[in-house]
Write a structure and sequence with these properties.
The structure is a homotrimer.
Chain A (H helix, E strand, L loop, with lengths): L1 H32 L4 H23 L5 H4 L2 H18 L7 H25 L4 H22 L14 H16 L4 H22 L14
């Protein structure tokens, strides 16, 4: 089915682009908040965008990395970092976390599905494959926050994020088990992760936490 | 000597189990202290338990990782993270660092010995092999503390920990040099690391430090 | 040209030695400031000296690491960490960041050139190769600061550092493009990175930053 392969490959490219932009913007926001210089903005954007996928590929011993195969993204990142510095000087420029949470949810779905897919293709156990999807989707943000000297948001804000990637990954595993077409399994997995994330954002649902901490913070 | 091989393999499994539980519990304690959510608890437990061994395997270019070979541990970690959240809600639940320092000392010995063994099997220089044992034993805790936004305990508390792994590793190297049986070298190395750690804990011995810092903290 | 090869190899060794000592000393300073114990000093020195090159080699899937090939450096690091603890006790001992910024600039040039060279030898795209040089030169310091629980200096102090490595890397790429001899390209690239760094230090030049932050810190 060359047509489906083409669609999948085109979807992959679109997915990666959307996810990379959303993840890089989350890095930009974090870097601005920490008053980093232009080098810092570029590094934190790069970690947020490519850190999760790169860590997944190091763990899976997989080469080339996304940014080696598509080096144009490195230029885009550097250009965005430099542009951000100059835009920031006109202090009217303002954009918020809220604005990027929708493309970010799309990125979450696509990384969860593609991470799980790549790991399953290496015959890894299902739980490992699903966690590779979670790593792809979340560790960019975790590395971004570690370098910014914060406890990572993904580990403490009680908003479902990694959990949505986890659920989406299992949808992919089940799809493969039931011998759906790879494209259908991929799409449904990504849609599940993105959908549960959007649902959680809209409903304000919070994960259980040990003790109520809202009053202390 | 198939019997000895069997004993070694069984010992390895038992060792890894004890070490993993102790290391994961240290992650759980750190995560609770930082008020992480359920995802954060699972990630920090996973880093504490598997981070050191996984970093060692990445450096040695060795696959599969322990948690890929034994994926049941991933389920145990997730179950423990979820259970901890619910146990914490009944606020009577209390457990302390002190309670896990003995199984943790056991883990220290076993990781030091097995890390050194794996690196020596790759014909690496003795000092590199010993440091691979130290990395296995300590970097789980270091990654745990970095993600929790703390200066790692292992680097500043002046309690011998990495030093015990270092001494144990050299015992293994000497054992191999003197052509002891691998099992005997392994056991003696692990016992040395664990024993020096237990001795340090019981005696309150502190490593030399540049200036006396106790009065300032 | 065996003579040139010999010169290059000898230069490489000298370069690595100077860079390692300067980078390790920056780790020592950071560790002392954070009141780490002797283990902490050794770990932070090791991260500062070998972290950048090791991360580059993990990303390039390249073995053996520098410190596996030259394990004597591990002994030097450990000896330096132990010596530092005892020197610190005689409180007259004092040395400053300023004293190491010149050998550090030399290290910057040499790591930028060698990182770019190693990546180009793997046929990676030019921008990736240049960034591998930047990673070699800067990530030791970034890992040092992350472990010391600081936002990395390289990302926020607005002093050109990564930028100098970036410029030097491009000189190497251009040199190869114009088929200069590898030795000439290497030397000119390293000299450019070191020279721009020294120029920036002497002139007090600062990178553009979003908003003026000097008054707030």
């Amino acid at each position: 089915m060359p047509n489906q392969d083409l669609l999948l490959s085109w979807l992959h490219t679109l997915v990666e682009a959307t996810a990379n932009v959303a993840f890089a913007l989350s890095g930009l926001l974090a870097g601005i908040r920490k008053r980093l210089d232009v080098v810092g903005l570029c590094v934190v954007m790069g970690l947020a965008a490519f850190g999760g996928g790169t860590l997944r590929d190091v763990l899976l011993d997989r080469r080339p990395f996304f940014w080696v195969d598509h080096p144009v993204w490195l230029w885009i990142l550097i250009a965005a970092g430099v542009a951000a510095i100059f835009l920031l000087r006109s202090s009217h420029f303002e954009f918020t976390e809220r604005a990027i949470q929708w493309p970010d949810a799309l990125g979450l779905g696509l990384f969860a599905a593609s991470g799980t897919q790549l790991a399953l293709a290496q015959q890894l156990p299902a739980i490992v494959a699903v966690l590779m999807g979670v790593v792809s989707a979340t560790f960019g943000g975790i590395l971004r926050d570690v370098v910014c000297n914060e406890i990572p948001t993904a580990l403490r804000d009680r908003r479902p994020y990694a959990v949505c990637a986890f659920v989406g990954g299992w949808v992919y595993v089940l799809g493969v088990q039931f011998t759906w077409s790879p494209g259908a399994a991929f799409l449904l997995a990504a849609a599940t992760a993105t959908g549960t994330r959007v649902g959680a954002l809209l409903s304000g649902y919070e994960l259980p936490s040990g003790r109520d901490t809202r009053s202390h913070e």
